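Report of the visiting student (M.T.), summer placement. My assignment was to run the structure pipeline on a short list of targets and document each run. The first record concerns AI-2E family transporter.
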Amino acid sequence: MKEGQLGYYCIVMASVIIVLAGVKFASVIIVPFLLSLFIAIILSPSYNFFRSKGIPDIISITFVMGVFLIFLALIAKLIGTSVHQFSANIDLYAAKLTTYYESLATFMNGFGVEIPASEISSLVNSKQIMHFSTAIIEGISSIFTNGFIVVLTVVFMLLESQHFSAKIEFADKDKETMKHITQIFSQIKSYMVIKALISLLTGFIVYVALTLIGTDYAFL
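After the run finished, the C-alpha cells were exported:
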C-alpha cells in the first residue's frame, strides 16, 4: 500500500472516530432534537389540515399540541399506575416465578438433568424484579426530563414548516432543487406516519393478545 493511501485511510478513520465521539457527547442535544423532529413530522398533517380550513395558526397549533399532550398524559398515567401496582406485587410474582422454575426443574429431572435449588433461588429474587421496575421508571423519566424543550421545539418546527419552502426558494432559485427537496420531505413524512401507525397497531394487537391470555400488566 502506498504511503499516500495509508495516510488517507488514517485520516478517514480518525474523522469517523471524531464524528462518533462528537455524536456521543452531543447525545444530550441530538436525542431531544430527533425526538422533536419525529413528533413534528407526525403532527404536521393534522396541523396543515386545520390551517387549510382557514383556522388561525395559533389556534391550530394549540389544539394539535393540546390533544397530543393529553394523549401523552394518559399514556404516562397508565404506565405509572401499572408500574406502581407491579412494584407492590413484587413478592407475589417472585413466588410465582420460583414455582415455575421448580416445576421446570422437576420436569428436567425426569430426563436426568439436575438443576440445583440454589440456582433456582438465584434466578428469581425481589431485588432483580425491583431493578426491572426501577429501570422502567428511569426510562420514562428520561423521556419526560426534556419534555418542555421538546414541546417548544415541536411548536417551532410546526410554525416554521409553512415558511420552509419559501426560504429554500429564496436561497436557491433552481426550481428542480426545490422539487427534489419537497419530494424527499414528503416521502419521509409518509414513511414516518405509516411507521407510527403500524407501531401503534402492532402494540394494540399485542396488548389485546396478552389481555386475552390473562397476562397481568399487558400495557407494559
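The longest helix spans residues 175-212. The chain has one domain: 3-212. I thank the supervising group for their guidance throughout the placement.
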